[in-house]
Amino acid sequence: MSVTASKVSRTAEVPTAGRAMWRKAAASGWVGGALEYYDWFIYAQAAALVFPGIFFPEGNATIAVLASLGTYAVGYVARPIGAAVLGHWGDKKGRKNVLVLAMLLMGVSTFAVALLPTYGQVGIVAPILLTLVRLVQGFAVAGELSGASAMIIEHAPHGRRGFLASFALHGTVAGQILGAAIFLPMSMLLSDEAFKSWGWRIPFVLSAVVVIAGFVIRRRVEESRTFEEQQDADGTGPRARRVPLVEAFRENWREILRAVCMTLVNVIGVTVSVFGGAYATQSGYGVGMSTSVYLWIQIAANIAGFFVVPVFGHLSDRFGRRPIMIGGGLAAGLLCYPYLWAVSSNNVPLTFVLAMLSWGVAYQAWNATFACFFQELFPAHRRVTGFALSQNVGLAIIAFLPTIFTMVAPPGSSNVPLTIGTLCLVITVIASIATWKSPETYRVPLDQLGNPDAKPLPREEYERLRTAESSPADSSPSGD
């Protein structure tokens, strides 16, 4: 065996030492992703479909929609702050600790939305309270995916990082399906008055169930050995004095900038789900698509994503992260044109098909791959911080796009598909250029990730080691 292969084999012993542990890490990431996007989805839907009429004064449809979508966006303002605080915590105190803290904060803040009074009950206090709760949600969620995906790739067997990290994103798709599946019967079975009075609160109450399940699983996951090896034995040496946030900006500002640009591909999700929901259902746009039909469209798109996310994660281990992310992002950007045109025409069958192609397949190619790729751009001692900052600064930008889209193409506009479709395509092109400028990482050994001088393994050696570390029993994660 060559020296390189010997070194990689020793590196691979760390994540493969406990098969059950990487399964638990993947299951923990899955549940956390499900909670994060369950919260994201139910809030996004409520902001587009319900909140304009209950948390804001009546009289101007455009102002109400803008204000409601603004509360959705303001949660992302807190995410860079949460990324700095929770990312630092994850790199200094451990991935497991930040994951448990993030989940508890997310659960409490999401549950609190269900208890808020309406504008009719307390006036201007209602949107203020909604904004404050949303800020707490944004702070908490900033540490979720960064900590979960770091834990997964640091436990993963050799050559399986992309596949296993995709389960955290698989959870996000499942969370959106669950959120829509709960919102849908509420909107279909209840009268409009009952739904806006109390029915919309039920999905927020039920988030407590997911939090409890996630907390139990996360308490059983051991800290990764990669993190433990970064710590000084006595806790007072040079590593203990590091400040990951400062180091990340000083040493990895290029990677952070590129990752922020790559994160902009999330414009697809907010276009289809948030702005698309307002465009399709709010009376000011005149499309007239029913709320229940639009929720079914999003369920269909996420069901498609549910099946393809692990596939794309696996393909990123075979062919690399960059081709999957670039191809998926550009395809999704192009598909925004026909998707929005189908919505404007109230062509429900075509809207179903194009939502499944754009959001359910093309976007999921990017979505399945980015978490692993972002983690691989940073060294272990500032991995959670680098990822959290990159993702959450990018998402803070993206979160304001539904509001900007509404301002650029307000109710009554006749050129919405062309205007918004062009903006989406331009944004995905920017993200694709940033991806192309980043180094390919899938064949770089775990202990060399984030090293600018790291050399990827030759393809033949990588495939041989990858095959040696795989077995039929490793095909899916579980919490056992």
Helix content: over 70%
Largest sheet: none
The parts where pLDDT drops under 50 for at least 5 residues are 1-17
Mean pLDDT: 83
Q: Tally of extended strands?
A: 0
What would you report as the Rg, rounded to the nearest angstrom? 22 Å
Shape: globular
- String of helices and strands: HHHHHHHHHHHHHHHHHHHHHH
List the helices and strands and how they pair.
Layout: H1 3-16, H2 19-49, H3 51-54, H4 61-93, H5 95-113, H6 119-122, H7 125-141, H8 144-155, H9 161-189, H10 192-197, H11 202-219, H12 225-229, H13 244-251, H14 253-263, H15 267-281, H16 291-319, H17 321-344, H18 348-376, H19 383-399, H20 401-408, H21 416-436, H22 459-469
Helix pairs in contact: 2-4, 2-5, 2-8, 2-9, 2-11, 2-15, 4-5, 4-7, 4-19, 4-20, 5-7, 5-8, 5-11, 8-9, 8-19, 9-16, 9-18, 14-19, 14-21, 15-16, 15-17, 15-20, 16-17, 16-18, 17-18, 17-21, 18-19
Task: Identify the notable features of this structure and list them briefly.
globular; mainly alpha; 480 residues; disordered N terminus
Give a written overview of the molecule.
With 480 residues, the protein is mainly α. Helix content is 76%, strand content 0%. The chain contains 22 helices and no strands. Mean pLDDT is 83; it is low at 1-17.
At a glance:
The chain is mainly α. The protein is built from 22 helices and no strands.
